[in-house]
Amino acid sequence: MKIPTFLILVIISGLISAATGDIWTTVYLADGNTPLELADPNIPYVYKDIMVGTKLTIVVSSDIAEDWTRSALVVERADMSIIGRLYGRGYDGFEYPGSCLPAAGDFPTVWSIVIPGHGFYLYGGEEPDVGDWFIFDYNALDIGDCNVALYDLDTSETEPVETLAFHHVRTRDFNNDTIVNFGDYATLASYWQKTNCDNLDGCQGTDLDTDGSIDSNDLMLFAGYWLEVTE
Asked: By CB atoms within 10 Å of each CB, which of 22, 41, 125, 207 scores lowest?
């Protein structure tokens, strides 16, 4: 497999049948039930900005009840820094059985690639059903862009089926208690109208637009993530 020159976060599975069918991903918040909103409902796969510290759930699904042997979910980044990371579930010292859902059939397999956290090889089991087959956790670790591409390797090793675009922004959880609430608002208020934040470590992160001062722009950027949960 020719790996794209971007930093990769790879999940591999596939189709051994020549029958046509679709594979796709669905992105949820950490609860695994609430879909992550798109930035624009008319543009698929480009999601609203998420804060550093946010955890997402990515589910890989199929609409055919046949075995997979060669597909891939790949997260590509333009540099080698750790901006986002993928985590499997239920590691047993060899594979991740907790990332295999019942619809994947009997004896599915999830293996990590060589670089931990960058991706997984996926193999569907025997006699699978239509539905959700694999599940992973994704964490936004640093500010920047991280794209997740789904490949059907039997069709193409270079052209993805779909590409999910994530943009990570500064956290609003200033006190690190895993939720954006009045405690964080109080932190922002304590720096209100400060004008030398570039010399004060960003005024404890409250200078969200990084212009050196705390003002209404920072307040608006903060309010957009009210009650958001982080890790």
From this structure: 41
